[in-house]
Amino acid sequence: MKKITFYSQRGGVGKTSILANLGAVMAMNGKRVGLLDFDLISPTLGMIFEDSLKGGTLTDALLEQDFNLNTIFELEDVTKGIIGKGSLYVIPSKHDVLSIAKVLRDGYPIIRVKKVLEYLEQHLKLDYLMIDTHSGLAEDTIFALSVSNLIFVVFKPDIQGLASMKAILNLFSKFKLQTMTIINMATNSDVEKNIIEEMEHYCGIPIVEEIPFYPDIFQNKDKKLLAFWQPNHEFIQHLKNITKMVEVMEIV
Fold it and tell me: Is 235 left (phi over 0), alpha (psi -120 to 50) or beta?
């Protein structure tokens, strides 16, 4: 099971939408894919699939006294076989205020996260596990990055995020983490082009795809899975490019 973590320095850059739809595209290509919402503070992954999800959450697994993953995770393939041989499993986190407050107040043993990862690999026989993280460098996010085989940094090209993103990418390169950047919500302005060029030159981390800003996606963000309902949308075509790259590259 290859673990692919999605990271952004700040929120609102489309990280979760990219992760969810990329996972769906890979499942449509016949892969067994899991999506894990490890953003315990502001989880949104489950909202995309809310109507089709059954079983427990990552929050349950980390906080329940009876740590029995067989009873907590009664996971079902959210595609329900409509896409052929592939499968897509979603492990959300609870997004109600009380659950988030409990995580912040009590914390959880990190060994439980390791047990969850082992369980998903052994019981679901996944090809890929895609991990959504909290923006910035919270403790949860650092752990997810440390166990990853590949990191996708999602970056919206603007001056506000350039300095901090350069520092983060420079840190990743020093720790030899296999990292690639996805540019999202690009408007193709001269300012953005200069920002992208400066970031790529400074950090030396490859940009694998530049995804334009699509107003219809922004307005419907996190409301439904575009890959299933509009598979020919230009946004999905960009994710198919990333999928082809992931499937042929050597992920260590």
Answer: alpha
Q: State the Cα torsion 139-144-150-153 to the nearest 10°.
A: -50
Judge residue 133's burial from the number of C-beta atoms within 10 Å of its C-beta, 0-12 exposed, 13-18 middle, 19 or more buried: buried
- State both tokens at 104: 């912040």
Report d(CA 88, CA 155) in Å as an integer: 25
Query: By CB neighbour count within 10 A (0-12 exposed, 13-18 middle, 19+ buried), where does 232 fall?
Result: exposed
> Using a CB cutoff of 8 Å and minimum separation of 24, what contacts does 109-113 make?
109/62, 110/143, 112/61, 112/62, 112/67, 113/38, 113/62, 113/143
> pLDDT for 23-34, tens place per residue?
999 999 999 999
Q: Residue 160: is its pLDDT beyond 60?
A: yes
The span from the CA of 210 to the CA of 84, in Å, is 29
CATH number of the domain at 2-248, out of 3.40.50.300, 3.50.50.60, 3.40.50.2000, 3.40.50.1820? 3.40.50.300
Return the number of other C-beta atoms located less than 10 Å from residue 206's C-beta: 10
